[in-house]
Amino acid sequence: MKLSSLVRSILLVVTALGPLAASAAPLRVVTTTEDLASLAREVGGDHVAVESIARGYQDPHFVEAKPSFILKLNRAELLIVVGRDLEIGWLPPLIQQSRNPKIQPGAAGYLDASEGARVLDMPTAQVTRAMGDVHPQGNPHYWLDPANGRRIAQAIQRKLAAIRPADASYFAARYADFDQRLAAAEKRWDAAMAPFKGTKVVTYHRSWSNLVDRFGLDVIGFVEPRPGIPPSPAHTFALMQEMKRAGVKVLLVEPYFDLKTPNSIARETGAKVVVLPPSTGGVPQAGSYLALFDHIVGLLSGALAGAR
Amino acid sequence: MSIVHRPFVLLFASLILAGSAGIARAQEPEPSPSPEPTPGPAAASPTSKIFNPDIAVIGNFLGAIGENEVDPRPSLDMEEVEIALQAAVDPYATANFFLAFGPEGAEIEEAYITFPTLPGGFLMKVGRLKASFGKVNTFHAHQLPWTDRPLMNGNLLGGEEGLADSGISISRLIPNPVLFLEVTGEVFRGESGVFQAPERGDLAFGGRLRGYRDLGEAVNVDVGSSFAYGHVAPGATARIVGFDATLRYRPLRRAIYRRFIARAEAAWRRDPGIADASLLTRMSRGAYLSAEYQFSRRWFAGARLDAADRPETIDESDKGVSALLTYWPSEFSQVRGQYRRIRYAEGPTSNELLFQFLFSIGAHGAHTF
Hints:
The structure holds two protein chains of two kinds. Chain A is built from ten helices and eight strands. In chain A, helix 2 crosses helix 5 (146-163), helix 5 (146-163) packs antiparallel against helix 6 and helix 6 packs parallel to helix 10. In chain A, helix 7 links the parallel strand 5 and strand 6. Chain A is of the alpha/beta class. Chain B has a domain at 109-362: Porin, CATH 2.40.160. Chain B is built from three helices and 16 strands. Chain B has helices at residues 2-27, 41-44, 151-156, and strands spanning 54-67, 76-90, 93-102, 105-118, 122-130, 164-173, 180-188, 204-215, 219-233, 236-249, 259-271, 282-296, 299-309, 317-330, 333-343, 349-362. Chain B is globular and about 60 Å long. Chain B starts with a helix and ends in a 7-residue tail after the last strand. At the A-B interface, helix 3, helix 4 and helix 5 of A face strand 4 and strand 8 of B.
C-alpha cells in the first residue's frame, strides 16, 4: 500500500516533469571539434545548444587549454570528444578545472565518439616515440569516413536520449532524417570518386587514412618523415624520387601546415598541391559535416581528374 | 547474537546479488552500436598495465660557461631528474606525484590528491603543493621558459624550492559575464623556502585571484594577484604580495609555427624587524619582464629583464638581463642557450652562458595553461 503510493507519487512527479523537460532550455553540449559539433546539431536540432572548442582550421592536436574553455565546460551538460588520444595534450586539464561533475570521463555527460566508430591504423606492435607522434589507440582522424559520421551521429542520438528521455523521439526522428540525407550524399560522393579508385597520392600528415580507405585511394607516402615530425631534406628527396617513379600527381596538405616543402615537391615532381580541410569549418564553404565532404570530394575529384 | 550477525548476512547476500548481477551483465551481449566496431581503447593495451599511472621521467641537464662569483653553478650538471606519476584515484579524485632527484638528494617536489568536483563548484588539492603565488612559483623546472628562475624568485620567494609546502588548497570560479575569474585560498604547515614554523600553530596562508580574457581567437590576457603570509622567526611574520600579467598571441591557423608570449611579475615582501638581530622592518621588491617569440616550428627566441632586492639587508638589489635561444627537436626534448648578465648587490658583475638539455620519456599529463 505504502509502496504503491510511493510509486504513484513518483510517476506523478515524472509525468509532471515530462512536459517541463521538453520545454526546458536547450541542452548545453560542448564538443572538442567542429565535426562533432555539426553532427550534434544534426541530431539535437533546436533542443541543443552546441559549441566547439577547436576551430576547423586549427590543428586539433595542438589546441591551447585556455581558461575561456574552462567556462564553456563548467556550464556544459554533455561533452563529446574525438578520443583516441587526439585531445590528450590539452583536454584533461580543462575537464579537471571545469569543476563540472557531469562531464568527467566516465560520467553520464561524457561521450567518446570513437567508441562505436571504425578506427584504422591500430598499432599491432609496441609503439615508441622513435616512431614520431604515433597514436597508440589508432588513427584519431576517423570522422573522415562518412560511415563513421553515421556511427557518431547514432552514438550522439543515444546519449542525448539518455540525458533527455522526454526528447528521445525528437532525437530519433532527427537522426533518421540525417541518416537519409547522409545516405543520399554518400551515393553522390561515391559516384564522384569512383573513377579514381587505386590512384596514388601523397599526403602531409597521416590524417586521411579513413578518407582514402573509403574512396579507394592509395597513399604511397607522407611529407612528414614520421607522424608529427617536420619534413627533412633527405626524406623529402626520397619522397620526390618515389613520387616520380609511381607517377603521383596529387599532394594533399592540411590547411595548418606550411606550404613551403609541399610546393617545392610539387615543382620538382609536377604534382599538384591540394589544400584540403580535414575538419568542418576548415574553410567557410565546409560549414557542416555534409558540406565538408561536398567540399573535399569536389576538390579531390577535380584535382584527380585534372591530373589524368 | 542475531544482531551481531545481521550485518554480515546482509553483506554476504548483497555480495552474492552483486556477483550474480555482474555475471548476468557479462553474459548479456553488449549492444553493438555499429556494424563493425573497433575494439575499445582498453582492449589495445595489455590488461596488467591498465591501472598503472602515467609515468614520465624528465631530465634537466645544465651547463655554465663564464664568470659568477656570487652564485656559481657547476660547469656541467645533471641538475634534476623528475619523475611524474599521474592517475585517477577513483571516480572522485586524481593524484599527482612529482619526485625530484638531484645532486643534493631526493625530494618530494609535489604530491597531492585533487578533488575536482566538490559540491558548490569547489576544487580542492591536499598534499605537498607549490603555492599558487604568481606564475613562476608554480612551474616545474621543465615548464620554465628559461634555464633559471628570475632573481625575484631567488631573492624573495625561496629560490629553487620556492613557496612549496604541505597544505590544502581550495579554489572556485566566480561566475560573471565578462571574464574567467578564479579565486584560490590556501593554508600550509608554514615550512617552505620562505617561511619557518617553529610552533604547530605557525601556519602559512596564501590567496590568489586570477582573471583571464580572450581578445579575439589569437590574443589573450591573463592577470593575477597573489598573497602569502607566514612566520619567518618565532613570533615574527612576513607577508608577500604579488602581481602578474601574461599576454599571449598565437594565430590558430599557424599555431605550430608562431607564437608570442610576454610575461611580467612583481612582488613586494615585508619582513619583520628582529630586535636581538638589530634588524628593522624591511620592505623588498622584485620584478621581471620577459618575452618569447617562436619564429619557426622548432625555434624560439627570448629575453628577460630582472631586478630584485635582498630581503636580508636594506637597500641592496641585484639586476640582470638575459637573452635566450631555444631549439625543439620535438615536443619531448629541447636544447636551450641563455646569455645572462647580473650586477650583484655586492659589486661583482657576472657574465655567463648557460645551456640546457631537457628531455622527457613516458606519458606526461598536459600542463595547465
